[in-house]
Amino acid sequence: MTASGQNLRINADRLWDSLMEMAQIGPGIAGGNNRQTLTDEDGEGRALFQAWCEEAGCQMGLDQMGNMFAMRSGTDPDALPVYVGSHLDTQPTGGKFDGVLGVLGGLEVIRSLNDLDVKTKHPIVVTNFTNEEGTRYAPAMLSSGVFAGVHAQDWAYDRVDAEGKSFGDELKRIGWCGDEEVGTRKIHAFFELHIEQGPILESEGNDIGVVTHGQGLSWTQVTIIGKDSHTGSTPMPMRKNAGLGMARILEKVDNIAWSHKPHAVGAAGHIDVYPNSRNVIPGKVVFTVDFRSPNLEVIESMEERLHTEGQKIADEMDLEILFEKVGGFNPVTFDPKCVMAVRNAAERLGYKHQNIISGAGHDACWINKVAPTAMIMCPCVDGLSHNEAEDISKEWATAGTDVLLHAVVETAIIVS
After folding, report:
1. Cα distance between residue 379 and residue 357, in whole Å
2. pLDDT in tens, 334-355
3. Is 200 exposed, middle or buried (0-12, 13-18, 19+ CB in 10 A)?
4. C-beta neighbour count of 184 within 10 angstroms
5. How far apart are CA 306 and CA 140, in angstroms?
6. What pLDDT sits at residue 170?
7. Are 349 and 342 in contact (CB under 8 A)?
8. Is 379 helix (H, G, I), strand (E, B) or coil?
9. CA 210 to CA 337: how far, in whole Å?
């Protein structure tokens, strides 16, 4: 970075005010947000973001998956843009910062460059990717996956929610289906700012996580079929208890993850029990096992053990068991040059920082397949996320966005 860019800082008050104003759209019931993808609240949040981008002099692009691209022009018409961003959709009981910090932090980068009359050779584009959370429409990171060529657009359009409403129909209904072909944009580099969603940075007393890798993920849906019968009158030796079979398998899942410590993790978050009545032994359970590791061989080993040990338990209990791979992605290694830009920025600004592996999936994990990519993380209180009590400090938000600003301008190249 040139000397003229050494002292660049964002407007911390404006960033925080924007975060709090966006949080007024789709409020939750306990202080957080419920702004699920392709709802009316999502549309309202998008409209506010677009208005702010246009006020900052950006041109807004919109593709056929509803991905939003706000561009600040560069001085070289042939230079590929530097992209920043994340997502505005939330969990049903989501916080005010997951994803939103990355989008509004990107907007604040542009606003600050405007204030300081700083021009860059490369254009800068702030992105809001549709349906990162994957709560209403599985899988997560759906639209960035289409952008990166991981998913087919028609397949994405056909995803349905719990009420049978399709992604494609709902995207059109809220008025945010663009004409631009998905994935045609060429990217010089992509940076995503995000809260950690874990406790490491706060516990270590560091301001910034320099994300070097992203954990791979494996989702296996397990269905166990037994026989529902009366809890009081069915003798113990004659029971085919699908719930008990699930319990024994979930203990194995925990053991499998522990056997690959410290980075591997495993649990089941989605569990359905049938008929789910107090006095009926469960005749069927459906649950999804979530394994993660930065090592692909470890993920494959954990999957294999789940199948082998789960089948053994089912056989011993005279239960039927089915396994279906319903989602996942391989571990990610982020671009060394982009990672170095983040690290340089943290050091230049004097922020305490450390290398970190992302434990969650992010849009950056897919964009990394088509463009040089890196992530910046800031702490969150007690590592809590996907919860309405999710919280960060104004200082953490400022530090992360200052680092984003410096990494972006180093990559986009200051010309004045």
Report:
1. 13
2. 999 999 999 999 999 999 999 9
3. middle
4. 8
5. 23
6. 98
7. no
8. coil
9. 12
By CB neighbour count within 10 A (0-12 exposed, 13-18 middle, 19+ buried), where does 409 fall? Answer: buried
β-strand partners of 321: 224
pLDDT tens digits, one per residue of 180-216: 999 999 999 999 999 999 999 999 999 999 999 999 9
Token pair, residue 115, equals 């204030």
Dihedral sign (CA 38, 111, 392, 331): positive
Q: Which of 408, 394, 392 is nearest to 98 (CA)?
A: 392
- Residues 6+ positions from 205 with CB-CB distance below 8 Å: 352
What distance in Å separates the CA atoms of residue 189 and residue 335, rounded to the nearest whole number?
A: 9
> Per residue in 296-334, is it b (16+ CB within 10 Å) or e — as a string?
eebbebbbebbeebbeebbeebebebeeeeebbbebbeb
Tokens found for residue 11: 């407007």
